Amino acid sequence: MTTEQPYFPPPGPPAMAPRAPTNGMSVAALVLGIVGVAPLAVIFGHIAVHDIKNNPPQSGQGMAIAGLVLGYVALAGWAILIVLFTILAIGAASTGVAG
């Protein structure tokens, strides 16, 4: 009497490793940097980089750095515009040109 061995299906694909949670401050920094709310983008970006550095399983450092860069670029743009308009206003006031 021959007994057949039970059929076992082939093993499935390996289970996926859980992803590291994304830091919410880094997402906020990126969004605020894109929108142009520069001071908040810089603040949230610095907080996110600090949090990610102290909590290694978190991800989102690239988004935090992108938010920082966009925030600082927006701040520089605003500073240039303020200086330019101030120079133009002083020049117009000194020549007596009224708007």
Low-confidence stretches: none
Indicate the overall shape.
rod-shaped
Query: How many DSSP helices?
Result: 3
Main sheet makeup: none
Helix coverage percent: 55-70%
Order of helices and strands: HHH
Structural class: mainly alpha
pLDDT averaged over residues: 91
Number of strands: 0
Strand content: under 5%
Over all CA atoms, what is the radius of gyration? Answer: 28 Å
Q: What is the count of structural domains?
A: 1
* N-end to C-end Cα span: 109 Å
Summarize, please.
By secondary structure, this protein is an all-alpha fold.
Description:
The protein has one domain (24-95). Helix 1 (24-35) runs antiparallel to helix 2 (38-54), helix 1 runs parallel beside helix 3 (61-95) and helix 2 (38-54) runs antiparallel to helix 3. It is rod-shaped and about 115 Å long. It has helices spanning 24-35, 38-54, 61-95. It is built from three helices and no strands. 24% of the residues are buried. By secondary structure, the protein is mainly α.
Primary descriptors:
rod-shaped; mainly alpha; 99 residues
Which SSEs are present, and which pair or pack?
Elements: H1 24-35, H2 38-54, H3 61-95
Helix pairs in contact: 1-2, 1-3, 2-3
